[in-house]
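Lab manual, section 2.4: Encoding a predicted structure.

Procedure: take the sequence of the chain (109 residues), apply the prediction step described in section 2.3, and record the output as structure tokens. A sample record is shown.
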Amino acid sequence: MPVKAARKKVVRPARPAPKNKKPCVADLLRARMEREQKLNAKTPAPPLTENLFPITAAAKKLGRSVWTLRHMASEGRLNYRRGGRRMFITESEIARLAGKEVLAVNATA
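Recorded output:
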């Protein structure tokens, strides 16, 4: 009986990726995180030399509501810092809003 020759398997080339492929959400998030890391590495936050108060404590000291302080912050009339989702106000900023003078923290008398 004659022996049949083995058939050669046809190997198809891989399908090329489309050139105008839209990036997926993970790619966009990864790129955004990389940009933020580069930005944060270039401009570190200045060291904090005075006390921070939560916005609720600052409102009690000033005799104003929390929402008044939040509104002032959104208008740019109040300097604040963020810690996660919480807002903190420096001691000098509270004194400025109260109309009192503040001595420099590291000043020698």
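Check your result against the sample. The two ends are 113 Å apart (CA to CA).
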